[in-house]
Amino acid sequence: MTIEFDCCGFFKAVADANRVKIMLLLARGEMSVSAICRHFKMKQPSISHHLGVLKTAKVVECRKEGKEVFYRLNQCCVSSCCADFMKRFSD
To answer: What would the mean pLDDT of 38-61 be, rounded to a whole number?
Structure first.
């Protein structure tokens, strides 16, 4: 079974430096929202907004544990969209 991703949506979602920084953090492993917030000077609602954009584009996935939400990078989405993009420019 092949999963298809919206590559235009992917690139729109990652066209923000804060979201790229979140992705780089999550590339190390799953993190809670509060742990992600510690790496930024912005408030939690702003981080949650960025995570929501990434989640809508399927760049990140999340799970809830009690009151805390944990996010992880969707490596499949990142790989698929980047590979598809590069394929368009190869001979």
So the answer is: 96
